[in-house]
């Protein structure tokens, strides 16, 4: 990653701040000059950072994952490094604490994707530590809320197993997943096994066969018979078991899903959807281009499914300007309680908005004209998906790392870079707080012409035009010190791959405090990748390292700034 900047007419070169510029060349000599703290470790670029502890690294991985890798490390390399950190925690008797962190992040909807959570849970379940294994299997039903999660967990558990992978504890946990649902919510189980028949190369038939399940619950017996032998055999079993009301409801629903699977008439499909609350996955492919069918599905469509299918519904003319559905969708997207109940994650909303504005899918031939009110609704949903916070009244400098390493995809999403994601996350604080200055830095620093009423598309577009170069994370503090700016809180959004410049960030904030006599000035580092580095000194009580796109991150930062923690 060189330091050559690309000129851009949208930014005035006279506004560029550089602190004692160095040459673009980097190497061992420069790296040795900047190590001034015994706890620092060298990163891939030859610069020096602090190493975060294994529990903090686990939190980063659970929320950010490692899909797509980083600028300096592949996905597989990061996955191996994080797996080793889990093993160390378990060997240090912190396995139960790790499992509780996994459960907490999953239940609170703090992570955008469940893959990292399930990978970590599988490692804990496969460990040799009895307490860790027990804790992991005990929270399986809480973490694996739908069959897709269960199939993914089984896949990861298989990859971590040295034997067959289906020991007593594993079989019992899989059995329990089906038995608990059948006991408490039999109709929900019937919906789930027909909605998610097969994922991750695993099916319900596979799990039931390998877990040697022997159901005691009559509802589960009928559902298993349906999975293994089909509807007619399930009906025969129901007759043998007696005319129980729950059994009759389950059979009626299962029969409706079979009718839907074979259906060719859209009027019949509409009636089945209305009467039995069927969902998109129950509709055969041949009817998925029917506007009438989609109109019926939308009546009860879950929030996440609605967000995922906005492009499809727009392409069919269902969300035309001024239509009743345009208003209904906008109202739903701006409903805080509905977003919370559906565990809608802000990153997923950002990805959906970024995709929707393009007017076409990344795969296939689907195209649409983006609806303005829908885009406004998605923009609002993004901010609402973060836990609400009150303004602190402090003076902020919000600094976005725009160096070359931030150009990699964020969380494996090809259409969104870490730089884009950092800009979007910055806007949450920028809109909340009154006193903010926004800057972007690489080996030089620039002010960013962003307004509070800019939508996310405008913010991402502006940040993407900023020239990039090397990484000097000390620049925000050095700039504020030289320009005599009074700042209470510096928030730096970065991947922590810093190497450029002679002054280390933690030293820059210390110097700033002394010169400006703001002795408790805070530095918050928002990590945008799941590597093991941070520029924040873990021993400094006024520095905080936090995981980017944790839906609870803004609340944690506010509590830290107001010294409530």
SSE blueprint:
Elements: H1 28-34, E1 40-42, E2 48-51, H2 54-64, H3 75-91, H4 95-107, H5 115-125, H6 130-138, H7 140-143, H8 147-160, H9 168-184, H10 186-195, E3 198-199, E4 202-203, H11 204-211, H12 218-229, H13 231-241, H14 245-262, H15 266-276, H16 291-298, H17 303-308, H18 310-315, H19 324-333, H20 336-341, H21 346-358, H22 372-384, E5 395-401, E6 409-410, E7 413-417, H23 418-432, E8 435-441, E9 445-447, H24 456-464, H25 475-482, E10 489-494, H26 505-516, E11 522-527, E12 533-534, E13 543-547, H27 553-561
Parallel strand pairs: 5-8, 5-10, 10-11, 11-13
Antiparallel strand pairs: 1-2, 2-12, 3-4, 6-7, 8-9
Helix pairs in contact: 2-3, 2-4, 2-5, 4-5, 4-6, 5-6, 5-8, 9-10, 9-11, 10-12, 10-14, 12-13, 12-14, 13-14, 14-15, 15-16, 19-22, 21-22, 23-24, 25-26
Walk me through the structure.
There is one protein chain. The chain has 565 residues and is of the alpha/beta class. The protein contains 27 helices and 13 strands. The chain has helices at 28-34, 54-64, 75-91, 95-107, 115-125, 130-138, 140-143, 147-160, 168-184, 186-195, 204-211, 218-229, 231-241, 245-262, 266-276, 291-298, 303-308, 310-315, 324-333, 336-341, 346-358, 372-384, 418-432, 456-464, 475-482, 505-516, 553-561, and strands at 40-42, 48-51, 198-199, 202-203, 395-401, 409-410, 413-417, 435-441, 445-447, 489-494, 522-527, 533-534, 543-547. The strands form 4 sheets. It has a 6-stranded mixed β-sheet. A 3-stranded antiparallel β-sheet has the order 1-2-12, with no helix packed on it.
């Amino acid at each position: 990653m060189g330091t050559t900047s690309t000129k851009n007419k949208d930014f005035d070169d006279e506004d560029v701040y550089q602190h004692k510029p160095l040459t673009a060349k980097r190497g061992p000599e420069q790296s040795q000059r900047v190590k001034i703290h015994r706890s620092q470790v060298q990163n891939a670029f030859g610069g020096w950072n602090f190493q975060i502890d294994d529990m903090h690294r686990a939190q980063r991985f659970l929320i950010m994952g490692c899909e797509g890798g980083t600028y300096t490390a592949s996905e597989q390399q990061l996955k191996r490094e994080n797996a080793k950190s889990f093993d160390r925690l378990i060997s240090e008797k912190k396995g139960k604490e790790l499992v509780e962190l996994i459960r907490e992040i999953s239940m609170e909807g703090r992570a955008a994707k469940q893959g990292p959570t399930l990978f970590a849970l599988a490692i804990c379940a496969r460990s040799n530590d009895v307490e860790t294994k027990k804790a992991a299997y005990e929270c399986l039903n809480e973490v694996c809320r739908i069959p897709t999660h269960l199939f993914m967990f089984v896949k990861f558990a298989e990859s971590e197993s040295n034997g067959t992978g289906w020991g007593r504890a594993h079989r019992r946990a899989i059995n329990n997943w089906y038995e608990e649902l059948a006991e408490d919510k039999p109709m929900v189980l019937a919906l789930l096994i027909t909605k998610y028949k097969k994922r991750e190369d695993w099916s319900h038939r596979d799990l039931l066969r390998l877990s040697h399940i022997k159901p005691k619950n009559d509802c589960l017996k009928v559902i298993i018979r349906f999975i293994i032998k089909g509807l007619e055999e399930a009906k025969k079993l129901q007759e043998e078991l007696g005319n129980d009301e729950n059994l009759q409801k389950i059979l009626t629903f299962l029969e409706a899903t079979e009718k839907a699977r074979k259906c060719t008439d859209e009027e019949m499909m509409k009636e089945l959807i209305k009467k039995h609350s069927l969902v998109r996955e129950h509709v055969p492919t041949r009817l998925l281009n029917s506007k009438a069918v989609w109109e019926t599905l939308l009546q009860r469509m879950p929030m996440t499914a609605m967000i995922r299918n906005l492009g499809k519904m727009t392409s069919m003319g269902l969300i035309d300007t001024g239509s009743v559905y345009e208003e209904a969708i906008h109202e739903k997207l701006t409903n805080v309680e509905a977003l919370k109940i559906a565990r809608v994650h802000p990153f997923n909303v950002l990805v959906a908005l970024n995709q929707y504005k393009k007017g076409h899918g990344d795969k296939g031939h689907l195209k649409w004209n983006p609806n303005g009110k829908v885009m406004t609704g998605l923009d609002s949903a993004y901010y609402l998906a973060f836990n609400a916070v009150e303004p602190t009244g402090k003076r902020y400098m919000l600094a976005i790392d725009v160096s070359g390493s931030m150009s990699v995809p964020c969380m494996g999403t090809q259409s969104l870079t870490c730089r884009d994601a950092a800009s979007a996350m910055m806007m949450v604080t920028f809109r909340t707080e009154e006193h903010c200055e926004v800057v972007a830095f690489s080996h030089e620093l620039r002010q960013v012409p962003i307004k509070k009423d800019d939508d996310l598309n405008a913010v991402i577009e502006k940040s993407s035009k900023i020239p990039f170069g090397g990484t000097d994370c000390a620049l925000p503090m050095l700039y504020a010190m030289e320009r005599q700016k009074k700042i209470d809180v510096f928030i730096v959004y970065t991947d922590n791959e810093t190497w450029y410049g002679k002054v280390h960030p933690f030293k820059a904030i210390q110097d700033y405090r002394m010169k400006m006599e703001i002795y408790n000035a805070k530095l918050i580092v928002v990590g945008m990748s799941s590597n093991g580095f941070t520029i924040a000194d873990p021993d400094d009580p006024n520095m905080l390292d936090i995981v980017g796109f944790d839906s609870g991150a803004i609340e944690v930062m506010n509590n830290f700034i107001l010294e409530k923690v």
